[in-house]
Amino acid sequence: MAYPPAPWKLQGYACQTLQLVDASLAQSLVPSELNVISVWPGKTIGGVYLATYGPGSVLEYHELIVVAGLVRHSGGVGGWISHIYVDNPDSVAGGREIWGLPKELAEFSWQQGQHSRLSVRQGERQLCTLSYEQPAWGWRQGFSVPSFSMLKRDLLLFRGEVSARIGLISAKLDVPQESPFATLGFGQPWLAVNCDALNMVASAPQVVDKCKGFQRPTTAGKIG
What we know:
Blueprint: E1 8-22, H1 23-27, E2 35-36, E3 43-53, E4 61-73, E5 76-86, H2 89-99, E6 103-105, E7 107-111, E8 115-122, E9 125-133, E10 139-151, E11 154-168, E12 171-174, E13 191-202, E14 206-210
Parallel strand pairs: 5-6, 5-10
Antiparallel strand pairs: 1-3, 1-13, 2-4, 3-4, 4-5, 7-8, 8-9, 9-12, 10-11, 11-13, 11-14
């Protein structure tokens, strides 16, 4: 597999949902070295990120990222990526070998318009469907997105530096029971945004700790 070294520069379009997740469910999916942050009694913040990266990106592909919860480690705060899917084998290899992300291949169908719909599947298994309305307005915003992952026994922290035109959207997320992340119990988003004209730089990870005995609950599939 041929993939570029970090950092990765990506350009395209994305949608992000935020949902309240039972903190106990999230904790079962993260290493014990990370503490799940409760934003409401017994609840943390999770969600899905769906993106398409096109011309101007180091690799062109679609992506689905599942954040199980908001976590803390030694004063650092970020999201724990429990599941992640793309449709480019080079992205799978780079994600696994650089960032320790459990990337798997999936198929994406994105119908964009005033009434947009994105479907993600693995063969006959439906992973999720997001339906949403395009925003009437938006604003340009820059922000940093810290995330934790694990490579072998190293606990990693990395950041995505993002600039995009942000707009609030009305969205409906459907995660069928057959989906590997259905156990997170994602309800309907309490907040959803789209990120148009997106520019993101995914930095190289930093080792922040060693993980003791943690095994991801799912096994990443074949690269291709």
